[in-house]
Write a structure and sequence with these properties.
Elements lengths: L2 H6 L9 H4 L21 H4 L3 H13 L2 E7 L5 E4 L3 H7 L8 H15 L1 E9 L11 E12 L3 E8 L4 E8 L4 E4 L3 H4 L5 H19 L6 E4 L7 H20 L12 E4 L8 H16 L3 H5 L4 H34 L2 E6 L8 H13 L5 H8 L23 H6 L1
Helix pairs in contact: 4-6, 8-10
Length: 403
């Protein structure tokens, strides 16, 4: 680019006024201190240890990539489809989220509400009158009301900058129900019971730390007449005044008066019940403490992915397949599939052995192994060939015929 062209087209965000930045539109919509499209947990979920479980599982689900792919007659993966739907799944689902944040939003909504609705917001054709349409943007919403053939969804409208309730047909929106609904979202499920116990435990803690003394004063006379009651009330107020006005909270009483303190910690089994329900919930979700703190071995992580992550990801993929591709796309060999890096949990000490076995059995080429390690591909043509490097290179058929 020439110097004059570069200076003529130069632009700096700080040197231009607000009117030019927003495209000559002074009204750019409402503003918020936090992201308005961010998922907000229910009150009890937000205040408990359950939030850590939701976050851990949603991060692991977000690590599984979703792609719009093409398969052959045997349902074998042949390549990605260059479509607007694949662009939404792998590059930009909407204006505010990337692909990973979008997948995590699906999981968080699924855990918190029991069902998540993936809505195609921008399409090339009207989905009400067309069975097949191209999808440009996707959003995740919560179900507000269920109808026989429709669903009312609370969805973030990025054009207006606020949450909005709209009614959509079930046919063209992907409704994902939590496969672990009976464990996490059912009214008397293990997780809901744990939340109620945690609420009770918080209530007991607040009461024990409220600052009340909870004492009983035994006066040296019988309180039956109205005059004696007024005298006892005056004595109680005197002790309260002494404790409140004293620097160290000290009060004096008569030698004939007896004070009994009641704010000793009450014995209850709430903590034991919380620990029991937490362990039970971990077992039912396929979680362990080592998974939560990041010290789990390969076997524990494999069990966790197979029992907990895979059913949820499969439910998301099947809902998208049914609604976004439908029978027409399925017959044409189009699928929405998930892909997880199988080498993510493999330690570096085992990568060399795995690479040798994959190369000798002609499963992967050297360049594919290099991409897994993080090295750039080699320019050698042999690096893209599927062959065993330990065996001699067979002669071409033309050379064998000539000899």
């Amino acid at each position: 680019m020439a110097v004059l062209d570069r200076l003529r087209g130069a632009w700096n965000a700080f040197r231009h006024n607000d009117q030019e930045i927003v495209g000559y539109n002074p009204n750019i919509g409402p503003s918020y201190g936090t992201r308005p499209d961010r998922i907000r947990f229910n009150y009890y979920n937000e205040r408990s240890v359950v939030t850590a479980i939701y976050t851990r599982m949603s991060i692991d689900i977000a690590g599984v990539a979703l792609r719009h792919v093409q398969v052959d007659t045997n349902n074998r993966y042949t390549g990605d489809v260059r479509s607007s739907l694949n662009n939404a799944l792998t590059l930009e689902p909407n204006l505010d989220q990337g692909p990973r944040a979008f997948r995590q939003d699906i999981a968080m909504t699924l855990f918190d509400s029991g069902a998540a609705v993936i809505v195609p917001v921008d399409t090339n054709l009207n989905p009400i009158t067309n069975e097949r349409f191209d999808i440009f943007t996707l959003r995740v919403g919560k179900v507000v009301a269920w109808y026989p053939k429709h669903v009312r969804v609370s969805l973030y409208n990025d054009a207006r900058g606020e949450l909005q309730e709209i009614t959509l047909e079930k046919r063209y929106v992907a409704i994902v129900e939590n496969p672990l609904y009976a464990v996490m979202n059912e009214q008397n499920s293990t997780l809901q019971r744990l939340l109620r116990k945690l609420t009770l435990l918080d209530t007991v803690d607040e009461q024990s730390s409220s600052g009340k003394l909870d004492i009983i004063i035994q006066l040296p006379y019988v309180i039956k007449s109205e005059a004696r009651k007024q005298q006892a009330e005056q004595r109680r107020e005197d002790i309260e005044f002494q404790l409140k006005g004293s620097k160290y909270g000290i009060a004096y009483t008569d030698a004939t008066e007896k004070i009994t303190q009641l704010n000793r910690p009450a014995e209850n089994n709430l903590l034991k019940q919380v620990e029991y329900l937490t362990t039970l919930l971990y077992n039912q979700l396929g979680l362990t403490e080592s998974i939560m703190n990041g010290t789990a071995d390969e076997a524990a992580m494999l069990n966790y992915y197979n029992r907990s992550i895979e059913p949820i990801v499969s439910a998301i993929v099947e809902a998208m397949q049914r609604s976004f591709l439908g029978p027409v796309g399925t017959i044409a060999g189009e699928r929405i599939q998930y892909f997880r890096d199988p080498f993510r949990l493999v330690p570096l000490s085992q990568i060399a052995e795995i690479a040798d076995k994959f190369s000798r059995n002609e499963i992967t080429s050297p360049n594919e192994i290099r991409s897994i390690i993080g090295l750039p591909p080699s320019a050698d043509p042999k690096a893209d060939e599927l062959r065993n490097s330990n065996m001699p290179n067979p002669q071409p058929a033309q050379e064998v015929a000539s000899s």
